Amino acid sequence: MLTKKRLWKICIYGVLLCLVLAGCASVSDVSDTAQKSPVTLRLLTVGSSGEEACQRISRALSAITQKELGFSVELEQASLIQYKDVAAQQLLLNNAPDLFCYINLETLSNYVEEGYVYPLDGQLKNYSGITRNVPSEVWSCVQIEGATYAVPANNHVNYSKGFLARADIVQQMGINPAEIDTWEELHEVLLQVKEQFPDMIPVVGHFGQVHQTLGQDPLGDNLGVLLNNKGTTIENLFASEQYAQMCQFMHQWYEEDLILKDIIFTDEAAARMMNLYNGFGFFTRISDNNISASIRSVGQELVPFVLSEPIANSSSVNLGWCVSPTSQYKQQALQLLELLYTEQAAADLCIYGEENTDYVRLDKNTVTNKQDLPQDEWSTIPWAWPNRVVASTWRLPEKEVEKLPTKGAIRSPAMGFVFNSVPVQTAVNRCLAVVDKYHEALMSGYLDPQDALPRFLAELEEAGIETVIAEKQRQLNRWLNA
Question: In this structure, which CATH number among 3.40.190.10, 3.40.30.10, 2.60.40.10, 3.30.450.20 belongs to the domain 160-315+404-481?
Fold first, then answer.
């Protein structure tokens, strides 16, 4: 016979049991809901679009990925100047995007050192759309200690030293760019520009620098290079005869008012500098892709003055794609990469935006700028996407861009070598601080090399440049032997 006390206990236990079962059912329901909740992949890349534009292109790309892959995509951008800091902040605060890019090999090395990137070797064999679209020599640039940590963007690696100039001015002056292939001849052209167009700045810069390269393999940080992209002996670029001669050239040009006076104090892309300062041209790496991208950005036809034979080295592999180790959607990240490597519609959307909103189509495989752009314009950089080779070609209406001969490029013997600066990090940091102090100021002609270059070299010596070069040589020798 049940007493009131015992009956009370049974009631209490029953209530508790119901609560537990309800709780379990509730947890199960949440778990099922979480498993069935739609997947949204976060991607961070380089660009300067506003939030509305990012949302608009995210919706358009998601329409493609939902149909073909079963998930959505959320695009985020940061400007080229801010990108490293934005990415570093997200990674440090455990708010990493599922898929993000690096913008130079040293950054990739740092990401690996900090454990911010997921090794991809076990996954890539399942994505032939990626592997077949990336040249085999480029893969070595993203392999550290035998593991593959990124998918390199499929950009052309061959380039020449050169100068891009306004085609209308060149034509008015009656100059054939193909006949100008030395610094002295280019100097004469710039003097003519100054004389005939006194309100024009002959040479503008790009993000505070005049020269992107002097033709060396920088081996990452320019602290020890392969001069002229040749040989296997690492040398101090800044102590070379070539560097001293270029400093002297630039200072002379600066004194002749051929170079924008405040280049080192500006932080704008060459395209904006051309329009802002009525520029004639700028130094850049000359390749078909770079010419096309520059014309698109400047908004008018440019012609190249090619000042060297084509070369190739690891600095060309200046962008690639990484998967976060904390991502729940690693498989989807690689599926998205494969889509962007293989499908023109997806690549066009990311690079150019929406057809008839951000650009207009000239034919099946060719596009051009749209005159009346929307307020939420999609603004990005073509090379900041996985495979611009599969995308439509951009050109000005009624203008065909002449293809440059880039085959037979001089390939650096260190193509694929990645310097690990950790063993000499203190010396590297000190040397980079000295380089920041002098290099661009010398290359822009702002400093007189007779006075500044000896001080630059002495401070580099004191900072430990020889220690860095010795360690880099040791690592390169080991890499070459392996």
Answer: 3.40.190.10
